[in-house]
Amino acid sequence: MVAAKIARSAWLGIKVSDLTGSAARARVIATGAGGEVTSENVVTSIDPTGSSRTADLRTESGASVPDVGVDEARMVLSVPAKALDQVLTDLSKIGSVSYRSSQSEDVTDSYVDTKARIEPMRDGIDRVRALLSKTTDLQQVITLESELTRRQAELDSLTQRLAQLDQMTTTSDVTLTLWTDSTTPVTGSDDGIAGGLRTAWDSLLGSVTVILTGLAALLPWLVVLVPLTLVALRYRRRHGVVAAAAVPAAPVAKGPEPEPAGAPAKAGKDPDE
């Protein structure tokens, strides 16, 4: 009877004061237990050189680390399954444990079934090879070679699956996350006159951007409205001139014609009367 095959894995999160030193201690613990570090990703939020390369590395690595104030290390440790509990205990002493979880999966049935299918498959391959060595018929040779290829591929798959199950049950993966709250304040370098000039320049660029954005939004309307406005003005100007020409001029009132010199005065009332 096959002993129980249990695949175990664990996750551990620890807050530490020294990220680099704690990561080194984790490596020592893993190798001391007969294991190894299969992956490691250390991200420092503040670059002492002042370069922006740190942010680029953070993005490329896919680590969900805030821009300021947190350093983080993520490590995957592969250790012997029998030493998993002791490794977790030793790792917990590195700092303050924030979370710890583990998972166990019984793969005994899958292991037994896979192993039981391997021996009959090997026997079948041996029989096909024996037949292939004796036959002289070309059609039978082609058929036997095709069957031999199929069975060999299935045997390789079963063998690989059994090896994976063996590894899952003899070693355990520990996903370790280390982080530290950085107390180093982030200081800006744009102080005094230089900072004021930079701020003014940024404001100017922002204003120009807003104006250009507004003009870009109005451009489709201007394309339509400007021609219509010009047509309307031209129409109004033309019809206004025609209307002015159609109205007749008002007659000019004439005063009394002057009497010719030497003409007798018209009879009228005597002013003395």
Can you tag this structure with a few keywords?
273 residues; alpha+beta; 2 domains; 5-stranded mixed sheet; 6 helices; 54% helix; flat; disordered C terminus
Plain-language structure description:
- This protein has 273 residues and is α+β, with helices and mostly antiparallel strands.
- The protein folds into two domains: 1-187, no CATH class; 192-237, no CATH class.
- It has six helices and five strands; from the N terminus they run βαβαβαβααβα.
- The chain has helices at residues 19-32, 53-61, 84-92, 108-134, 138-170, 192-246, and strands at residues 6-15, 36-43, 70-80, 96-106, 171-181.
- The protein has a five-stranded mixed beta sheet with strand order 2-3-5-1-4.
- Helix 4 packs antiparallel against helix 5.
- The protein is flat, with a radius of gyration of 49 Å.
- Mean pLDDT is 78; it is low at 47-69, 183-191 and 267-273.
Q: What oligomeric state is this?
A: single chain
Q: Indicate the mean pLDDT.
A: 78
Low-pLDDT segments, ≥5 res? 47-69, 183-191, 267-273
* Major sheet size, sense and barrel closure: 5 strands, mixed
The strand count comes to 5
Radius of gyration based on Cα positions: 49 Å
Query: Given the helix and strand composition, which structural class is it?
Result: alpha+beta
Which strand order does the major sheet show? 2-3-5-1-4
What is the strand content?
15-25%
Order of secondary-structure elements: EHEHEHEHHEH
Sum up the overall morphology in one term: flat
| Number of helical segments with 4 or more residues | 6
The domain count comes to 2
